[in-house]
Design brief:
Strand content of chain B: under 5%
Number of helices of chain B: 15
Strand order of the largest sheet of chain A: 6-9-10-3-11-12
Largest interface: A-B, 34 and 24 residues
Helix content of chain B: over 70%
Strand order of the largest sheet of chain B: 1-2
Shape of chain B: globular
Oligomer: heterodimer
Radius of gyration of chain A: 25 Å
Largest sheet of chain B: 2 strands, antiparallel
CATH class of the largest domain in chain A: Alpha Beta
Structural class of chain B: mainly alpha
CATH topology of the largest domain in chain A: Rossmann fold
Distance between the termini of chain A: 55 Å
Number of strands of chain B: 2
Helix content of chain A: 25-40%
Shape of chain A: globular
Order of helices and strands of chain B: HHEEHHHHHHHHHHHHH
Largest sheet of chain A: 6 strands, mixed
Number of domains of chain A: 3
Chain lengths: 506, 376
């Protein structure tokens, strides 16, 4: 058994936290090795150490049996280590070839020799079945093609060890399937792949071995073929996890939230949402699914008053809220769990109790005649912390910034559910959360549905959409391309609609 | 010590950085004094005298120094409140200087043109200064809220406008006799009081400290206790979250700049009718704005912090002449002041240094035990 990478007893300290605590990772040559762990488990830190972005405080690294010191990414490159980052690092108005040769441009005399580079790129693309046009401009090709350009970039530099950092986050199910094929092809050609992910399904589908980290510590390394998803999840979280959402059938009533012919401009000044109509009835969860960047953010911000509406209308229980400011929308019964909890959901430097009254601080009992009543604010926080099991270092006194993502999200959920809105817009409620918190949040969302609330749930996680929703609306290019019943559809159909290749009226 | 790590915070750490910064500042000052060949003890004696009026070396007491310290501290505390208030709303108000000058101009106008008994005249003078400062602050606030023009650019420009407007008015409208100052204000407009001067052995101490103390309390109350202050802090920390929660972000920005301006305008009125008794034409800005920024920084924009930091910087200024009379260059005060600001700005470095030192101390106290066990 030849290990190509050996990271032995790695220790890495950051102020206040030990990100890696005696972690050992051994990767066999020619295998796909998954690195599994919740957010903050130390996966990225470990990979950053391997790639030379951080230097470890303890432990040693051996590549192909030789002890090495990887002081910066150039050393990693020379050792044949390449990384496909979660956020691509491409120049958008350059061609594929120009991007790939960036940094080691081939020259014919003093002149750049693009032609021979393009030939090499085309050859590599063919060898690994990547199907990339060397002369296409980055801005003209799809996200999954851009990812392949990143892969080609590494292959062009003769990388033998390829690190994929959460590569499927931006892909449709079909594209994920294709990526897995590419990964297998790479391994057949003798490459070694390190796959960072928290998605068990993908590990099961493609990886040979899986190393699990939890809170910076090594939990174990297991052969994937002999390990079930459930037991890997247990290793990751530290307890048994239920995967399915426990919910009864929906009893939808009359329409509560209605969107008609909505047009919203995006940050570029183009129409991000085009003539979009949808309606959500009381007692049902309408899932909104789509690939990131297809108008979800614009739609949600327009509904909740954070972005101006070009044309069309939004009504809540028959009341037109199209032109109302945020405060009056909220007063009309709209609730909003924002997709970015740090940017919109919380004031991170406020204490938890202050964050809990961010909408209602101006009204009784939290203030009287413009003077805050910290006693009432504290009591309110204590009640919500208790009811929603929000855990933090110092209870209501904790700064929101120092809380974990799951508890931050629980705090937002508590605050918004407590407002008891009739129409509830929920965006990415479980992004980046661990399995336990996801379980809890899904339960609360379904409970709200059962209380008769109309819920619009936008998520990039297809599993979440399928598990929690009653009906599913698919958004593509700012338009709803189909509405289907959750129990009559599957990943495949949704995936095709998400990529715009199939339309279906609901 | 098992679970101690870098970055562990303890209660009172918020206070620790400014205190350490001040100590380091004095250390730098001492080193510089030693380089000039004098004893730092002379410097500290001068400072103690500036602070308490006591001359330890000679065993004498002169309350005049206390008065001068307060006089120096008053305007920079107010400009610090000005900077701090805007900063709590996420605005970088460099315009305290200009807001102070229009405040002083408005105070001059009311002092010269209004005839009224003192108990009406003085509040009118102070109120005029505050209103003028508030309006001057409203300009960058409005431009920021409406057109997203950066307040730093606008306030810097407005400082010049204020300076030249002040000079134009003083010299031409009020008919300055000596091309430097206006006529004397009537007694009813003045914060000066012979009694205060006499108990402090002829210092320039005046009733200006009363509105300053009130301003500190108002600052604390508005920011910490009111819904308005809650909204301002929310906007300051996270504009997007404030918007999401339905707050009127733009209105808060304008109001915050106006209140900040009012603090600086008050400083202008206090200087004009307390320290002086006439409107003055200025050749250049006097630096109250920048001193205020430094005070706010050292006081971490907290009411009590600003009061203490203001007194400290007032002391450094007041001790200048004393040091000079003892053969120590008075610029040392400025050097100490600058070093303190520098060390406070190095907040993260200091925090790290403190926690490293703690870790080491904890380790050191654990070592002898293991040493004994090993038989060393």
């Amino acid at each position: 058994m030849a290990f190509i990478i050996e990271m032995l007893n790695i220790v890495k300290d950051f102020p206040g936290i030990r990100a890696n605590d005696d972690v050992t990772l051994q990767v066999e040559k020619g295998s796909i090795h998954a690195l599994l762990g919740e957010n903050g488990a130390g996966k990225s830190t470990l990979m950053s150490i391997l790639f030379g972005l951080y230097s470890p405080d303890g432990g040693s690294i051996r590549i192909r049996g030789e002890t090495v010191r990887i002081s910066d990414p150039n050393v990693a490159n020379e050792l044949g280590i390449g990384m496909v980052h979660q956020h691509f690092k491409l120049v958008h108005n350059f061609t594929v070839t120009e991007n790939i040769i960036l940094g080691l441009e081939p020259k014919k005399g003093p002149v750049l020799d693009i032609k021979s580079a393009a030939v090499k790129v085309a050859e590599l693309s063919k060898l690994y079945g990547l199907d990339v046009d060397p002369f296409a401009k980055i801005e003209d090709i799809s996200v999954s093609m851009q990812q392949r350009v990143e892969i080609l970039k590494m292959l062009y530099r003769d990388a033998e060890i390829l690190i994929f950092d959460e590569p499927t986050a931006v892909l449709t199910p079909q594209e994920i399937h294709e990526l897995m094929g590419i990964m297998r092809r790479l391994v057949e050609e003798g490459k070694t792949i390190l796959l960072i992910t928290h998605k068990l399904k993908e590990i099961k589908a493609v990886a040979d071995t899986c190393t699990v980290l939890r809170r910076g510590k090594l939990i174990g390394t297991v052969p994937v073929a002999e390990t079930s998803e459930a037991s890997m999840a247990e290793m990751m979280v530290g307890r048994e996890v239920s995967f399915s959402v426990d919910k009864g059938p929906a009893h939808p009533g009359k329409v509560v939230l209605e969107v008609k012919d909505l047009c919203v401009k995006n940050a570029k000044g183009l129409l991000g949402v085009k003539n979009l109509s949808l309606s959500v009835r009381e007692g049902e969860i309408l899932g909104l699914c789509g690939i990131d960047g297809n108008g979800q953010t614009e739609l949600i911000q327009a509904l909740t008053g954070l972005a101006p509406i070009e044309s069309g209308s939004v009504t809540v229980q028959g009341v037109d809220i199209t032109d109302l400011p945020v405060k009056q929308r909220l007063d009309s019964g709209l609730g909003h769990i924002p997709e970015d909890r740090h940017r919109h959901g919380l004031v991170l430097d406020f204490r938890l109790d202050e964050n809990m009254v961010i909408h209602s601080y101006g009204s009784e009992p939290f203030s009287r005649h413009g003077i805050l009543d910290y006693g009432a604010i504290r009591k309110n926080a204590d009640r919500l912390i208790e009811e929603f099991d929000v855990r933090s270092g110092r209870g209501p006194d904790t700064k929101a910034r120092s809380m974990s993502g799951g508890n931050q999200q629980k705090a937002i959920l508590a605050r918004e559910i407590d407002r008891s809105p009739i129409a509830f817009v929920i965006a990415q409620p479980t992004r980046g959360l661990d399995v336990g918190a996801i379980e809890y949040i899904h339960k609360r969302i379904v409970a709200e549905r059962d209380k008769g609330k109309a819920i619009l749930l936008a998520s990039l996680e297809l599993d979440e959409i399928l598990d929690v929703s009653d009906r599913i609306a698919v958004i593509y290019g700012g338009e709803i391309v189909g509405v289907v019943d959750a129990d009559k559809t599957d990943e495949n159909e949704l995936g095709l609609m998400m990529s715009g290749s199939v339309r279906k009226a609901g | 010590m098992a679970n101690k790590k870098l970055g562990d915070t303890r209660k009172g750490d918020a206070l620790l950085v400014p205190v350490v910064a001040v100590l380091l500042g004095f250390a730098v000052g001492s080193v510089v004094v030693m380089i000039t060949g004098k004893s730092p003890l002379v410097m500290f004696n001068a400072m103690l005298q500036g602070l308490t009026g006591l001359n330890v070396a000679r065993g004498s007491f002169n309350p005049r120094y206390i008065g001068e310290l307060v006089i120096q501290a008053m305007p920079i505390i107010l400009t610090a409140l000005c900077f701090g208030f805007a900063a709590r709303t996420g605005l970088f108000n460099i315009g305290a200087e200009g807001q102070l000058m229009v405040g002083s101009l408005a105070a001059t106008t009311v002092a010269l043109l209004v005839r009224a008994p003192a108990f009406i005249h003085i509040p009118l003078v102070l109120g005029a200064g505050m209103v003028a400062g508030a309006l001057w602050g409203a300009i960058p606030g409005y431009l920021k809220a409406r057109f997203n023009v950066h307040e730093v650019v606008v306030t810097i420009m407005l400082n010049y406008v204020a300076l030249h407007m002040n000079n134009l008015m003083i010299l031409n409208v009020f008919g300055s006799v000596d091309r430097v100052k206006t006529a004397q204000f009537p007694q009813s407009a003045l914060l000066k009081d012979p009694w205060l001067e006499s108990i402090t052995n002829g210092s320039r101490l005046n009733w200006g400290f009363v509105p300053v103390l009130i301003a500190i309390v108002v600052y604390w109350f508005v920011i910490e206790k009111t819904t308005f202050g809650y909204g301002l802090r929310a906007v300051g920390y996270n504009k997007d979250a404030a918007k999401y929660a339905g707050m009127k972000v733009n209105r808060n920005i304008v109001l915050s700049m106006m209140i900040a301006g009012a603090f600086a305008g008050l400083a202008g009125a206090v200087i004009t009718t307390g320290t002086f008794s006439f409107g003055r034409a200025l050749s250049a800005a006097e630096g109250y704005g920048f001193d205020g920024m430094a005070v706010a920084l050292v006081g971490s924009n907290q009411a009590v912090g600003i009061l203490l930091a203001g007194l400290l910087f007032g002391m450094l200024k007041a001790a200048g002449p004393l040091m000079q009379s003892n053969g120590i260059p008075k610029e040392i005060g400025g050097i100490i002041q600058a070093s303190i600001v520098l060390f406070v700005a190095m907040k993260y470095g200091l925090e790290r240094l403190i926690s490293v030192l703690r870790l080491r101390r904890d380790k050191a106290s654990a070592l002898p035990v293991t040493g004994e066990e090993a038989g060393v």
